[in-house]
Amino acid sequence: MRVEKHMMDEVLVQVEGLTRCHGEVRVVDDISFTLRRGQILGFLGPNGAGKSTTLRMLVGVLAPDAGQIIINGVDLLDQPIRAKQVLGYLPEQPPLYRELTVDEQLHYSARLHGLNRRASHQAATRIKQRCGLTDVSRRLIGYLSKGYRQRVGIAQAVLHDPTVMVLDEPTVGLDPLQSREIRELIGELSQERGVILSSHLLTEVQTLCTHVQMMRMGRLTQTVTLADLERQPSTRLRIGLHTPPPLALLERLPGVEQIDDLGQGYFCLHHAANAAPTASLIQRAGDWGLQELTPEHSHLEQLFVDLILKTEMDQ
Amino acid sequence: MIFVIAIHEWRSLFLSPLAWSLLAVTQGLLAWMFILLVDDFRNLQGRLVALDHAPGVTDLVVAPLFRVAAWVLLLLVPLLTMRLFSQERRSRTLDLLLSAPVGTPAMVLGKYLGVVTFFINAVGLITLMPLSLAMGAPLDLGKLLAGALGLTLLVAAATAAGLYLSTLTTQPTVAAVTTLGLLLALWIVDAASTAQGISSDLLSYLSLRRHYDSFLLGLFDSSDLAYYFLFSLAFLGLAMRRLDDLRLRD
Hints:
Number of domains of chain A: 2
Number of strands of chain B: 0
Radius of gyration of chain B: 20 Å
CATH class of the largest domain in chain A: Alpha Beta
Oligomer: heterodimer
Structural class of chain B: mainly alpha
Number of domains of chain B: 1
CATH topology of the largest domain in chain A: Rossmann fold
Largest interface: A-B, 27 and 23 residues
């Protein structure tokens, strides 16, 4: 499908100065961001950083103490019912009634979002196929496994074809295989929409998101696009040597700034961007028995670790 | 939207054995009561013939039956209203309603109508018993209908109170106990005004029973109707306010 350029630039969510206090503590402190069509925005931060609270405010479950939320051109606080029509929300714990079957749950949710009887039936059939729920459609939700419940939760969030999907920790508590399935599903569903999700898992954000917001103690600390991160040249080189020379000799290689000895002949060479000592290493590969040479791309991880360390230091 | 929620609420009552067992127990108890009352009436019949303006079968069977029915249903109201909001808050399913394009009034009214519809079903079943007397006895249909209407209004008002109390806590049992306490207190509140000679028009006006009794006498007084209406409205309004408040505090 061809997507027009101007359509991709369309702002779906605009948040200004969002603040929420819990007693004296500012759980969310003056945050602003925008989400455009086609973007998947990940909120990344340690537990208790205010990610869930932010998302709950975005979908109108909580009221902010200050700030403005514009969803697809409609002010959420002034016209909540109109603004919520284009939202799909999956809370941390999917809101499912244990005594209903999958069909009944999806039907109820569709009707709540304003679909009529016929449209909700069609939507449910379509989404069940897409989320792999057709086989369990008559099962009671109380008897489903956690992975299936999560799928029902996601199906429920996208049933009414929302333009903005808000997913709170969509893969928490799932095994690695299930998480991968759910991630693929989100990736598929995210096309043509805008998605905001929260996570404390780096890999998840790395594989899914186009943009990342780092969040710490209620504040946004950094906004990066993953494409930028990947384009950034590596500044670390991991090498394995069979017969390593003295450390001093390695340090004298051109461009090397610092060396971590990882033991058993493995080293991590820190070097300036675009000045990797690859060529000189290969020249002496025979003498030193070079067996591994990997540039390390892990800026996001570095950012995240820095963030957590900083949080711990502040406490 | 109100009806979507109401139908969901009504249906999920019948998905659990709770609603069925409540209907069965109520019907069983009241059927026993009904047999006793009819039996009493048969024993009295001989003496009644001798009286001028003797009370009829409607006064001697229907009114006492409905008085007991009111007691039984008032005891059941907390069991059904306790889940309404506290259960949803506890199991975190309220997020579905809160994030859906549904206003707070629709949410509250939908749930209210769902439970009231259940009680209309129950009152209907109870009314069938005295109605069967019409086959063999002169029944005052007007009085019977007034009684059924009174019972429905009484239970609807009690449901509104229970619904409000269930928004206050995340523990269904706490909601049930407080609802039961409130309803019983309102039932007996006029007893105080007669007991110690404290005559208080306000207390007797507040009593749920006072207004119900006039329906049982076959009186259809608009002030009684207004009482139940305002009573329900007040509690539903409080529930809406409370839910809006939760968005600020939770």
